[in-house]
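quick q for whoever's on today - can somebody do inverse folding on this one?? i tried earlier but teh output was garbage lol. C-alpha coordinates:
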Protein backbone atom coordinates (compact mmCIF):
# COMPACT_ATOMS: atom_id res chain seq x y z
CA UNK A 1 0.00 0.00 0.00
CA UNK A 2 1.39 3.39 -1.03
CA UNK A 3 2.04 5.89 1.71
CA UNK A 4 -0.04 9.04 1.79
CA UNK A 5 2.77 11.38 0.76
CA UNK A 6 3.50 9.14 -2.24
CA UNK A 7 -0.17 9.25 -3.28
CA UNK A 8 -0.04 13.06 -3.24
CA UNK A 9 3.41 13.12 -4.85
CA UNK A 10 5.11 15.01 -2.02
CA UNK A 11 8.11 14.46 0.21
CA UNK A 12 7.72 12.60 3.49
CA UNK A 13 6.88 14.91 6.41
CA UNK A 14 5.79 17.66 4.00
CA UNK A 15 4.21 20.66 5.69
CA UNK A 16 0.57 21.71 5.49
CA UNK A 17 1.24 24.05 2.58
CA UNK A 18 2.71 21.26 0.46
CA UNK A 19 -0.14 18.89 1.39
CA UNK A 20 -2.83 21.38 0.40
CA UNK A 21 -0.97 22.41 -2.75
CA UNK A 22 -0.69 18.80 -3.92
CA UNK A 23 -4.29 17.97 -3.03
CA UNK A 24 -5.82 20.88 -4.92
CA UNK A 25 -3.58 20.20 -7.92
CA UNK A 26 -4.69 16.57 -8.11
CA UNK A 27 -8.43 17.04 -7.65
CA UNK A 28 -8.41 19.33 -10.69
CA UNK A 29 -7.57 16.19 -12.69
CA UNK A 30 -9.34 13.38 -10.84
CA UNK A 31 -13.01 13.89 -10.00
CA UNK A 32 -15.35 11.29 -8.46
CA UNK A 33 -17.17 11.08 -11.80
CA UNK A 34 -14.08 10.77 -14.02
CA UNK A 35 -11.92 8.52 -11.85
CA UNK A 36 -13.71 7.66 -8.58
CA UNK A 37 -11.08 5.21 -7.30
CA UNK A 38 -8.23 7.67 -7.79
CA UNK A 39 -10.26 10.50 -6.27
CA UNK A 40 -11.07 8.38 -3.21
CA UNK A 41 -7.39 7.52 -2.83
CA UNK A 42 -6.32 11.18 -3.08
CA UNK A 43 -9.07 12.39 -0.77
CA UNK A 44 -8.38 9.72 1.87
CA UNK A 45 -4.65 10.50 1.79
CA UNK A 46 -5.36 14.20 2.20
CA UNK A 47 -7.74 13.60 5.10
CA UNK A 48 -5.28 11.29 6.85
CA UNK A 49 -2.44 13.77 6.54
CA UNK A 50 -4.58 16.58 7.93
CA UNK A 51 -6.47 14.53 10.53
CA UNK A 52 -4.45 15.90 13.43
CA UNK A 53 -5.65 19.40 12.55
CA UNK A 54 -9.27 18.33 12.01
CA UNK A 55 -11.01 17.33 15.19
CA UNK A 56 -14.72 18.12 14.70
CA UNK A 57 -15.64 15.80 17.56
CA UNK A 58 -14.28 18.49 19.86
CA UNK A 59 -16.78 21.06 18.56
CA UNK A 60 -19.95 18.94 18.56
CA UNK A 61 -21.69 17.17 21.41
CA UNK A 62 -21.44 13.38 21.03
CA UNK A 63 -23.36 10.82 23.03
CA UNK A 64 -21.13 8.34 24.94
CA UNK A 65 -22.09 5.53 27.35
CA UNK A 66 -22.17 7.10 30.81
CA UNK A 67 -19.85 5.73 33.50
CA UNK A 68 -18.94 2.69 31.42
CA UNK A 69 -15.31 1.68 31.83
CA UNK A 70 -15.42 -0.78 28.93
CA UNK A 71 -16.78 1.87 26.54
CA UNK A 72 -14.13 4.31 27.72
CA UNK A 73 -11.38 1.76 27.08
CA UNK A 74 -12.73 1.11 23.56
CA UNK A 75 -12.85 4.84 22.86
CA UNK A 76 -9.27 5.23 24.05
CA UNK A 77 -8.17 2.30 21.91
CA UNK A 78 -9.81 3.86 18.85
CA UNK A 79 -8.15 7.22 19.50
CA UNK A 80 -4.77 5.51 19.91
CA UNK A 81 -5.22 3.60 16.65
CA UNK A 82 -6.18 6.81 14.87
CA UNK A 83 -3.05 8.50 16.17
CA UNK A 84 -1.07 5.55 14.79
CA UNK A 85 -3.02 5.89 11.52
CA UNK A 86 -4.25 2.34 11.69
CA UNK A 87 -7.69 3.42 10.51
CA UNK A 88 -8.80 -0.03 9.39
CA UNK A 89 -8.35 -1.51 12.86
CA UNK A 90 -9.86 1.61 14.43
CA UNK A 91 -12.96 1.20 12.25
CA UNK A 92 -13.28 -2.47 13.21
CA UNK A 93 -13.02 -1.58 16.89
CA UNK A 94 -15.70 1.10 16.48
CA UNK A 95 -17.89 -1.45 14.70
CA UNK A 96 -17.61 -3.79 17.67
CA UNK A 97 -18.68 -0.89 19.88
CA UNK A 98 -21.69 -0.33 17.61
CA UNK A 99 -22.77 -3.93 18.07
CA UNK A 100 -22.22 -4.01 21.84
CA UNK A 101 -23.85 -0.63 22.53
CA UNK A 102 -26.55 -0.78 19.82
CA UNK A 103 -25.32 2.04 17.56
CA UNK A 104 -24.54 4.57 20.25
CA UNK A 105 -23.58 7.90 18.66
CA UNK A 106 -19.86 7.96 19.50
CA UNK A 107 -19.14 4.58 17.90
CA UNK A 108 -21.31 5.31 14.87
CA UNK A 109 -19.42 8.55 14.28
CA UNK A 110 -15.97 7.06 14.84
CA UNK A 111 -16.76 4.13 12.55
CA UNK A 112 -17.86 6.53 9.80
CA UNK A 113 -14.86 8.80 10.26
CA UNK A 114 -12.35 5.94 10.30
CA UNK A 115 -13.99 4.35 7.25
CA UNK A 116 -13.46 7.57 5.31
CA UNK A 117 -9.85 7.72 6.43
CA UNK A 118 -9.43 4.06 5.48
CA UNK A 119 -10.63 4.82 1.94
CA UNK A 120 -14.00 3.02 2.34
CA UNK A 121 -16.69 5.69 1.95
CA UNK A 122 -19.36 3.06 1.28
CA UNK A 123 -19.11 1.90 4.90
CA UNK A 124 -19.18 5.50 6.10
CA UNK A 125 -22.38 6.18 4.14
CA UNK A 126 -24.37 3.65 6.17
CA UNK A 127 -23.24 5.06 9.50
CA UNK A 128 -23.78 8.69 8.53
CA UNK A 129 -27.28 7.79 7.29
CA UNK A 130 -28.05 6.32 10.73
CA UNK A 131 -26.63 9.42 12.43
CA UNK A 132 -28.67 11.74 10.23
CA UNK A 133 -31.82 9.74 10.94
CA UNK A 134 -31.23 9.88 14.70
CA UNK A 135 -29.97 13.48 14.80
CA UNK A 136 -31.64 15.34 11.89
CA UNK A 137 -30.87 18.73 13.43
CA UNK A 138 -27.09 18.18 13.44
CA UNK A 139 -26.01 19.77 10.17
CA UNK A 140 -22.47 18.49 10.67
CA UNK A 141 -23.59 14.87 10.18
CA UNK A 142 -25.67 15.81 7.16
CA UNK A 143 -22.71 17.62 5.62
CA UNK A 144 -20.46 14.62 6.23
CA UNK A 145 -23.08 12.35 4.64
CA UNK A 146 -23.06 14.56 1.53
CA UNK A 147 -19.26 14.26 1.36
CA UNK A 148 -19.46 10.48 1.79
CA UNK A 149 -22.01 10.22 -1.04
CA UNK A 150 -19.70 12.33 -3.20
CA UNK A 151 -16.67 10.18 -2.41
CA UNK A 152 -18.63 6.99 -3.06
CA UNK A 153 -19.73 8.26 -6.47
CA UNK A 154 -23.43 8.61 -5.66
CA UNK A 155 -23.75 11.79 -7.72
CA UNK A 156 -27.49 12.44 -7.43
CA UNK A 157 -27.67 11.63 -3.72
CA UNK A 158 -24.62 13.79 -3.09
CA UNK A 159 -26.07 16.76 -4.93
CA UNK A 160 -29.40 16.54 -3.09
CA UNK A 161 -27.64 16.23 0.27
CA UNK A 162 -25.23 19.09 -0.43
CA UNK A 163 -28.03 21.35 -1.60
CA UNK A 164 -30.25 20.66 1.42
CA UNK A 165 -27.48 21.37 3.95
CA UNK A 166 -26.33 24.45 2.04
CA UNK A 167 -29.88 25.84 2.02
CA UNK A 168 -29.95 25.50 5.82
CA UNK A 169 -26.89 27.71 6.13
CA UNK A 170 -23.91 25.32 6.45
CA UNK A 171 -20.79 27.16 5.23
CA UNK A 172 -17.77 25.04 6.23
CA UNK A 173 -14.91 25.60 3.74
CA UNK A 174 -14.26 21.99 2.76
CA UNK A 175 -17.99 21.38 2.39
CA UNK A 176 -18.39 24.33 0.01
CA UNK A 177 -15.41 23.22 -2.05
CA UNK A 178 -16.79 19.70 -2.55
CA UNK A 179 -20.31 21.04 -3.11
CA UNK A 180 -19.03 23.18 -5.98
CA UNK A 181 -17.27 20.17 -7.53
CA UNK A 182 -20.49 18.17 -7.26
CA UNK A 183 -22.50 20.95 -8.94
CA UNK A 184 -19.90 21.29 -11.69
CA UNK A 185 -20.07 17.57 -12.44
CA UNK A 186 -23.88 17.80 -12.62
CA UNK A 187 -23.70 20.74 -15.04
CA UNK A 188 -25.32 23.04 -12.47
CA UNK A 189 -22.92 25.91 -13.08
CA UNK A 190 -24.98 28.66 -11.43
CA UNK A 191 -25.08 26.70 -8.17
CA UNK A 192 -21.36 25.94 -8.41
CA UNK A 193 -20.69 29.68 -8.71
CA UNK A 194 -22.97 30.37 -5.75
CA UNK A 195 -21.13 27.81 -3.60
CA UNK A 196 -17.71 29.25 -4.44
CA UNK A 197 -18.86 32.82 -3.88
CA UNK A 198 -20.15 31.71 -0.48
CA UNK A 199 -16.73 30.22 0.22
CA UNK A 200 -14.92 33.49 -0.48
CA UNK A 201 -17.48 35.44 1.56
CA UNK A 202 -17.05 33.10 4.55
CA UNK A 203 -13.34 33.98 4.97
CA UNK A 204 -12.70 37.41 6.51
CA UNK A 205 -9.73 39.41 5.12
CA UNK A 206 -7.66 39.02 8.29
CA UNK A 207 -7.81 35.21 7.96
CA UNK A 208 -7.13 34.90 4.23
CA UNK A 209 -3.50 33.93 4.74
CA UNK A 210 -4.70 30.74 6.47
CA UNK A 211 -6.71 29.74 3.40
CA UNK A 212 -4.48 30.68 0.47
CA UNK A 213 -4.61 27.37 -1.48
CA UNK A 214 -8.38 27.11 -0.99
CA UNK A 215 -8.90 30.66 -2.27
CA UNK A 216 -6.54 30.20 -5.22
CA UNK A 217 -8.47 27.09 -6.19
CA UNK A 218 -11.78 28.90 -5.65
CA UNK A 219 -10.95 31.82 -7.94
CA UNK A 220 -9.56 29.42 -10.53
CA UNK A 221 -12.80 27.46 -10.28
CA UNK A 222 -14.96 30.57 -10.68
CA UNK A 223 -13.11 31.59 -13.84
CA UNK A 224 -13.37 28.05 -15.19
CA UNK A 225 -17.11 28.20 -14.61
CA UNK A 226 -17.20 31.50 -16.48
CA UNK A 227 -15.85 29.66 -19.52
CA UNK A 228 -18.70 27.14 -19.18
CA UNK A 229 -21.45 29.72 -18.66
CA UNK A 230 -20.47 33.42 -18.65
CA UNK A 231 -21.68 35.57 -15.77
CA UNK A 232 -20.88 39.02 -14.42
CA UNK A 233 -17.34 38.69 -13.07
CA UNK A 234 -16.49 42.25 -12.10
CA UNK A 235 -17.18 41.79 -8.37
CA UNK A 236 -15.33 38.45 -8.33
CA UNK A 237 -12.31 39.99 -10.10
CA UNK A 238 -12.17 42.81 -7.54
CA UNK A 239 -12.41 40.31 -4.67
CA UNK A 240 -9.57 38.27 -6.17
CA UNK A 241 -7.41 41.39 -6.50
CA UNK A 242 -8.11 42.29 -2.87
CA UNK A 243 -7.17 38.76 -1.83
CA UNK A 244 -3.83 38.98 -3.67
CA UNK A 245 -3.11 42.34 -2.04
CA UNK A 246 -4.04 41.02 1.40
CA UNK A 247 -1.77 37.95 1.37
CA UNK A 248 1.13 39.73 -0.35
CA UNK A 249 4.35 37.76 -0.77
CA UNK A 250 2.89 34.69 0.96
CA UNK A 251 1.14 33.90 -2.33
CA UNK A 252 4.47 32.70 -3.74
CA UNK A 253 4.47 29.69 -1.43
CA UNK A 254 1.83 28.27 -3.77
CA UNK A 255 3.34 28.96 -7.17
CA UNK A 256 1.79 25.98 -8.95
CA UNK A 257 -1.74 26.97 -7.94
CA UNK A 258 -0.92 30.57 -8.76
CA UNK A 259 0.24 29.42 -12.18
CA UNK A 260 -3.17 27.86 -12.84
CA UNK A 261 -4.87 31.11 -11.83
CA UNK A 262 -2.57 33.18 -14.07
CA UNK A 263 -3.35 31.03 -17.09
CA UNK A 264 -7.12 31.04 -16.60
CA UNK A 265 -7.16 34.82 -16.01
CA UNK A 266 -5.25 35.26 -19.26
CA UNK A 267 -7.76 33.07 -21.11
CA UNK A 268 -10.81 34.83 -19.68
CA UNK A 269 -9.35 38.29 -20.28
CA UNK A 270 -9.05 37.45 -23.98
CA UNK A 271 -12.79 36.62 -24.06
CA UNK A 272 -14.13 39.32 -21.75
CA UNK A 273 -15.26 42.12 -24.06
CA UNK A 274 -16.62 44.18 -21.16
CA UNK A 275 -13.19 44.63 -19.60
CA UNK A 276 -14.41 43.50 -16.16
CA UNK A 277 -11.28 41.46 -15.59
CA UNK A 278 -8.69 43.81 -17.11
CA UNK A 279 -7.44 45.12 -13.76
CA UNK A 280 -6.98 41.59 -12.41
CA UNK A 281 -5.22 40.53 -15.61
CA UNK A 282 -2.82 43.44 -15.22
CA UNK A 283 -2.11 42.44 -11.62
CA UNK A 284 -1.44 38.84 -12.68
CA UNK A 285 0.98 40.11 -15.32
CA UNK A 286 2.87 41.88 -12.55
CA UNK A 287 3.15 38.55 -10.73
CA UNK A 288 4.45 36.71 -13.79
CA UNK A 289 8.19 37.18 -13.13
CA UNK A 290 7.74 35.72 -9.67
CA UNK A 291 5.47 32.89 -10.73
CA UNK A 292 7.53 31.61 -13.61
CA UNK A 293 11.12 30.55 -13.09
CA UNK A 294 11.41 31.09 -16.84
CA UNK A 295 9.09 32.21 -19.60
CA UNK A 296 6.21 29.80 -20.18
CA UNK A 297 6.87 27.77 -23.34
CA UNK A 298 4.86 29.01 -26.30
CA UNK A 299 3.40 25.55 -26.92
CA UNK A 300 1.94 25.51 -23.39
CA UNK A 301 0.12 28.84 -23.73
CA UNK A 302 -1.11 27.80 -27.19
CA UNK A 303 -2.29 24.47 -25.78
CA UNK A 304 -4.41 26.23 -23.14
CA UNK A 305 -5.86 28.51 -25.83
CA UNK A 306 -6.66 25.51 -28.01
CA UNK A 307 -8.59 23.85 -25.17
CA UNK A 308 -11.02 26.78 -25.30
CA UNK A 309 -11.33 26.71 -29.10
CA UNK A 310 -14.71 25.21 -30.03
CA UNK A 311 -13.48 24.31 -33.52
CA UNK A 312 -11.50 21.41 -32.07
CA UNK A 313 -13.04 18.11 -31.01
CA UNK A 314 -12.81 16.59 -27.54
CA UNK A 315 -10.49 13.94 -29.00
CA UNK A 316 -8.03 16.58 -30.18
CA UNK A 317 -8.16 18.30 -26.79
CA UNK A 318 -7.51 15.00 -25.02
CA UNK A 319 -4.48 14.49 -27.28
CA UNK A 320 -3.17 17.98 -26.48
CA UNK A 321 -3.52 17.30 -22.75
CA UNK A 322 -1.68 13.99 -23.15
CA UNK A 323 1.33 15.34 -25.04
CA UNK A 324 1.70 18.93 -23.80
CA UNK A 325 -0.28 19.47 -20.58
CA UNK A 326 0.08 16.09 -18.87
CA UNK A 327 0.08 16.32 -15.07
CA UNK A 328 2.42 14.06 -13.09
CA UNK A 329 -0.67 12.72 -11.24
CA UNK A 330 1.28 12.30 -8.03
CA UNK A 331 3.57 9.57 -9.35
CA UNK A 332 7.24 9.32 -8.48
CA UNK A 333 9.79 10.19 -11.14
CA UNK A 334 10.33 6.52 -12.03
CA UNK A 335 6.60 5.74 -12.21
CA UNK A 336 5.81 8.87 -14.20
CA UNK A 337 7.78 7.75 -17.25
CA UNK A 338 5.62 4.62 -17.61
CA UNK A 339 2.44 6.60 -16.89
CA UNK A 340 3.37 9.20 -19.52
CA UNK A 341 3.99 6.48 -22.12
CA UNK A 342 0.59 4.93 -21.37
CA UNK A 343 -1.27 8.25 -21.74
CA UNK A 344 0.52 8.98 -25.02
CA UNK A 345 -0.23 5.49 -26.37
CA UNK A 346 -3.86 5.98 -25.37
CA UNK A 347 -4.02 9.23 -27.36
CA UNK A 348 -2.38 7.65 -30.41
CA UNK A 349 -4.85 4.74 -30.35
CA UNK A 350 -7.77 7.17 -30.25
CA UNK A 351 -6.32 9.20 -33.12
CA UNK A 352 -5.72 6.08 -35.23
CA UNK A 353 -9.35 5.04 -34.84
CA UNK A 354 -10.60 8.50 -35.84
CA UNK A 355 -8.20 9.01 -38.78
CA UNK A 356 -8.64 10.63 -41.27
CA UNK A 357 -11.62 12.61 -39.91
CA UNK A 358 -9.36 14.87 -37.88
CA UNK A 359 -7.09 15.81 -40.81
CA UNK A 360 -8.68 19.25 -40.97
CA UNK A 361 -8.07 19.85 -37.25
CA UNK A 362 -4.39 19.02 -37.63
CA UNK A 363 -4.10 21.50 -40.51
CA UNK A 364 -5.94 24.14 -38.44
CA UNK A 365 -3.54 23.54 -35.55
CA UNK A 366 -0.56 23.91 -37.86
CA UNK A 367 -1.91 27.23 -39.14
CA UNK A 368 -3.15 28.88 -35.92
CA UNK A 369 -1.22 27.08 -33.15
CA UNK A 370 2.18 26.49 -34.78
CA UNK A 371 4.18 26.04 -31.55
CA UNK A 372 1.80 23.36 -30.27
CA UNK A 373 1.83 21.71 -33.70
CA UNK A 374 5.63 21.64 -33.85
CA UNK A 375 5.76 20.14 -30.36
CA UNK A 376 3.61 17.28 -31.64
CA UNK A 377 4.89 17.07 -35.21
CA UNK A 378 6.40 13.60 -34.69
CA UNK A 379 3.00 12.29 -33.55
CA UNK A 380 1.16 13.74 -36.53
CA UNK A 381 3.83 12.28 -38.83
CA UNK A 382 3.17 8.85 -37.32
CA UNK A 383 -0.60 9.22 -37.75
CA UNK A 384 -0.32 10.50 -41.32
CA UNK A 385 2.19 7.91 -42.46
CA UNK A 386 0.39 4.94 -40.91
CA UNK A 387 -2.46 4.88 -43.51
CA UNK A 388 -3.02 1.21 -44.32
CA UNK A 389 -0.66 0.23 -41.51
CA UNK A 390 -3.09 1.52 -38.84
CA UNK A 391 -4.04 -2.00 -37.77
CA UNK A 392 -0.40 -3.05 -37.40
CA UNK A 393 0.52 0.05 -35.39
CA UNK A 394 -2.60 -0.27 -33.24
CA UNK A 395 -1.91 -3.93 -32.46
CA UNK A 396 1.70 -3.15 -31.57
CA UNK A 397 0.55 -0.57 -29.02
CA UNK A 398 -2.24 -2.82 -27.71
CA UNK A 399 0.29 -5.53 -26.84
CA UNK A 400 1.13 -3.60 -23.65
CA UNK A 401 -1.85 -1.25 -23.45
CA UNK A 402 -4.30 -3.75 -21.92
CA UNK A 403 -2.54 -4.35 -18.62
CA UNK A 404 -1.51 -0.69 -18.27
CA UNK A 405 -5.12 0.38 -18.78
CA UNK A 406 -6.15 -1.86 -15.91
CA UNK A 407 -3.37 -0.41 -13.77
CA UNK A 408 -3.97 3.31 -14.37
CA UNK A 409 -7.75 3.23 -15.05
CA UNK A 410 -7.64 6.58 -16.86
CA UNK A 411 -7.45 5.67 -20.55
CA UNK A 412 -9.97 6.96 -23.10
CA UNK A 413 -9.55 4.36 -25.87
CA UNK A 414 -11.94 1.75 -24.49
CA UNK A 415 -14.25 4.50 -23.23
CA UNK A 416 -14.59 6.00 -26.72
CA UNK A 417 -14.43 2.67 -28.55
CA UNK A 418 -15.89 0.06 -26.17
CA UNK A 419 -16.24 -2.46 -28.98
CA UNK A 420 -12.43 -2.64 -29.17
CA UNK A 421 -12.10 -4.11 -25.70
CA UNK A 422 -10.84 -7.65 -26.15
CA UNK A 423 -10.28 -8.72 -22.58
CA UNK A 424 -13.41 -10.72 -21.73
CA UNK A 425 -11.89 -12.18 -18.59
CA UNK A 426 -11.57 -8.88 -16.81
CA UNK A 427 -12.76 -8.83 -13.21
CA UNK A 428 -14.97 -5.84 -12.51
CA UNK A 429 -16.28 -4.11 -9.40
CA UNK A 430 -19.98 -4.72 -8.99
CA UNK A 431 -20.64 -1.37 -7.24
CA UNK A 432 -22.13 -3.05 -4.15
CA UNK A 433 -21.20 -1.53 -0.82
CA UNK A 434 -20.21 -4.92 0.53
CA UNK A 435 -17.31 -4.88 -1.91
CA UNK A 436 -17.88 -8.20 -3.68
CA UNK A 437 -16.50 -8.90 -7.15
CA UNK A 438 -18.01 -10.46 -10.26
CA UNK A 439 -16.32 -11.90 -13.35
CA UNK A 440 -17.52 -10.79 -16.76
CA UNK A 441 -17.33 -13.48 -19.45
CA UNK A 442 -15.43 -16.73 -19.70
CA UNK A 443 -12.28 -17.19 -17.63
CA UNK A 444 -9.07 -17.15 -19.70
CA UNK A 445 -6.77 -20.14 -19.34
CA UNK A 446 -3.05 -19.58 -18.78
CA UNK A 447 -2.22 -21.24 -22.10
CA UNK A 448 -4.95 -19.50 -24.11
CA UNK A 449 -4.03 -16.72 -26.57
CA UNK A 450 -3.76 -13.38 -24.77
CA UNK A 451 -6.91 -11.28 -25.46
CA UNK A 452 -4.84 -8.10 -25.86
CA UNK A 453 -3.89 -9.31 -29.36
CA UNK A 454 -0.15 -9.69 -28.83
CA UNK A 455 -0.12 -13.25 -30.19
CA UNK A 456 1.49 -14.55 -27.01
CA UNK A 457 0.02 -16.97 -24.53
CA UNK A 458 -1.90 -15.29 -21.73
CA UNK A 459 0.60 -16.50 -19.09
CA UNK A 460 3.46 -14.87 -20.98
CA UNK A 461 1.73 -11.56 -21.58
CA UNK A 462 -1.05 -9.83 -19.60
CA UNK A 463 -1.38 -12.86 -17.34
CA UNK A 464 2.13 -12.61 -15.92
CA UNK A 465 2.02 -12.86 -12.16
CA UNK A 466 -1.69 -13.62 -12.11
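ok took a stab at it. sequence:
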Amino acid sequence: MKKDYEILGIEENADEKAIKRAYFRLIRTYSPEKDPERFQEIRAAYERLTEEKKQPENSISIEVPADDKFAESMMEQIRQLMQERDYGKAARTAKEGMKYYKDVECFLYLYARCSILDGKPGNAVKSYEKLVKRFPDKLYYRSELAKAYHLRGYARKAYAAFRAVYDEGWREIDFLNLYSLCCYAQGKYDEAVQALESLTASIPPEKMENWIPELLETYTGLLTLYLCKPFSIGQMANACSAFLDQVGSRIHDYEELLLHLCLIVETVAAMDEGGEIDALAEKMNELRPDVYAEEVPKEVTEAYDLLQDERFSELMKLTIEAFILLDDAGYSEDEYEEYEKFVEDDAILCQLEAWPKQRGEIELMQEEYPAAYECMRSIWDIIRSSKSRNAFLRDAILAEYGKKERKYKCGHYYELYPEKRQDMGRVQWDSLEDGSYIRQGKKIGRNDPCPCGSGKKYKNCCGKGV
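fwiw Confidence is low (pLDDT under 50) at residues 55-59, 423-441. also The first strand starts at residue 427 and ends at 429. so keep that in mind when u check it
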